[in-house]
Write a structure and sequence with these properties.
alpha+beta; 18 strands; disordered N terminus; Pseudouridine synthase; 3 domains; Archaeosine Trna-guanine Transglycosylase, Chain: A, domain 4; 23% helix; 4-stranded mixed beta sheet; 8-stranded mixed beta sheet; 341 residues; disordered C terminus
C-alpha cells in the first residue's frame, strides 16, 4: 500500500478509525524503528579503561560499549563517580572470566581530609561532624602502621553490597541503615605519600573487598579527628598495571580511525587468568575437553585451576584438576575463531 494513499500531508494529527483515533505519523515512526536493525560487533577481549571522574562505572561501560558497538560487555569491580582509574571492561567471551579479576588484589592512591566526617565517607556527602586537627607526622605514621596486615572492616552503607537483594547505597539514600557484618581484609602495603595538614595522601595495596572510604574513616577515628576521602584513583587490578590503561580521549581518537584501531586497544582474554599454570593440549585432548570429557595430562599440576591452550597455543579456557589427577573443562570460550582479538 502506498503511503500517499493515506494523504498524510493533508491529515490532521489524528483521524477517526474503527478502533478509535489513529495517529499515522507516530505509527509510521514506530514501524521505521522496528525495521531498523542495528549492527553489533562480536568482540572478545579486555579493555583497561582509565575511568574519568564524574561517571559511574555503568555509565563508563555503556559509553565504551557504544564506541565498539559491542554485543556483550561488562565491568569488573565498580568505581564510584568520584573515583578515577582502572576499570577493566570485558567484552564477549571475556565476561566468562571476570570473576577472577573481582577476586584479585587492587592498588589505590587516595587523598583524604582530616577533621571532617561526611554522610558518605567521601566528598559527595554532607559534613556531619568537624574536629580540631592536631596530628603530627609521627602520630600519623604510627597510626597508619596499625592498619597493615589482616584487619576487620565494616562495609560502608554507601557500598554496592546487597541486603535482601537491594544495594546498600540505595537503602542509604532513603535514610535506611541496616546491620553489616565485619569482614576480614588484607592491607599488604600502606605508604604515606604526602602530609599537608589537614590533607593526607596514601597508596594502598589491598585484598578484594577492601573499601577505601571505610579505611579512611577508620584511620580518622584512630587519629581522634575523623576523615573523609576527597580523591581516589585505582592504579592496578590483579595482573594489570597503571601504564596499560586507556583514556576515553584515546578511545575516541581510535574510534575516529575505525574498528580495527579500537580492537588494537583490547588485551587477550587469557590475560584475565594469567596467574594460573598453562597446560598445552594435543588435538585429541582438545577434542575431548570440548566435548566435556576429563583428560589425563602428564606432568600437570596436582590441584587448582589451569589454563588450557590448544596445540597452536590458542587459549581455550579454564580447567580444574580433579582428585584423580585428570583435568576437567570448567569454563571454555566459544570456538568462534575471533575470540582473542
Amino acid at each position: 500500500m502506498c503511503l500517499r494513499s493515506f494523504g498524510l500531508s493533508l491529515l490532521p494529527s489524528s483521524i477517526p478509525g474503527r478502533r478509535g483515533l489513529l495517529r499515522p505519523p507516530a505509527i509510521i515512526k514506530g514501524i521505521k524503528n522496528k525495521m531498523i536493525k542495528r549492527h553489533y560487533n562480536d568482540i572478545h577481549g579486555v579493555l583497561l579503561l582509565d575511568k574519568p571522574i564524574g561517571l559511574s562505572s555503568n555509565q563508563a561501560l555503556q559509553a565504551v560499549k557504544r564506541l565498539y558497538a559491542a554485543k556483550k560487555a561488562g565491568h569488573t569491580g565498580s568505581l564510584d563517580p568520584l573515583a578515577t582509574g582502572m576499570l577493566p571492561l570485558c567484552f564477549g567471551e571475556a565476561t566468562k572470566f571476570s570473576q577472577f579479576l573481582l577476586e584479585s588484589d587492587k592498588t589505590y592512591e587516595t587523598r583524604f581530609k582530616l577533621g571532617e566526617m561526611t554522610t558518605t565517607g567521601d566528598a559527595e556527602g554532607e559534613i556531619i561532624n568537624t574536629q580540631q586537627v592536631s596530628v603530627s607526622l609521627k602520630e600519623l605514621s604510627a597510626v597508619l602502621k596499625t592498619f597493615l596486615g589482616r584487619i576487620s572492616q565494616v562495609p560502608s552503607m554507601y557500598s554496592a553490597l546487597k541486603y535482601q537483594g537491594q544495594p546498600l547505597y540505595k537503602l542509604a539514600r532513603q535514610g535506611i541503615e541496616v546491620p553489616r557484618a565485619s569482614r576480614e581484609i588484607d592491607i599488604f602495603a600502606l605508604d604515606l605519600l604526602n602530609f599537608d595538614s589537614p590533607f593526607v595522601s596514601i597508596r594502598v595495596h589491598c585484598s578484594k573487598g577492601t573499601y577505601i572510604r571505610t579505611l579512611v574513616e577508620d584511620i580518622g577515628k584512630a587519629l581522634g579527628c575523623g576523615a573523609h576521602v576527597t580523591a581516589l584513583r585505582r592504579l592496578t587490578a590483579g595482573p594489570y598495571q597503571a601504564e596499560q590503561m586507556v583514556s576515553m580521549a584515546q578511545l575516541e581518537e581510535s574510534a575516529s580511525q575505525g574498528l580495527p584501531a579500537l580492537l588494537e586497544r583490547l588485551l587477550p582474554i587469557e590475560t584475565l587468568v594469567k596467574t594460573f599454570p598453562v597446560i598445552n593440549l594435543t588435538s585429541l585432548t582438545t577434542l575431548c575437553l570440548r566435548r566435556g570429557q576429563a583428560v589425563l595430562i602428564p606432568h600437570a599440576p596436582l590441584e587448582g585451576w589451569v589454563q588450557l591452550n590448544d596445540k597452536d597455543g590458542r587459549f581455550l579456557g579454564l580447567g580444574v584438576v580433579l582428585s584423580d589427577g585428570r583435568i576437567a573443562p570448567k569454563r571454555l570460550v566459544r570456538d568462534t575463531g575471533k575470540v582473542c582479538l
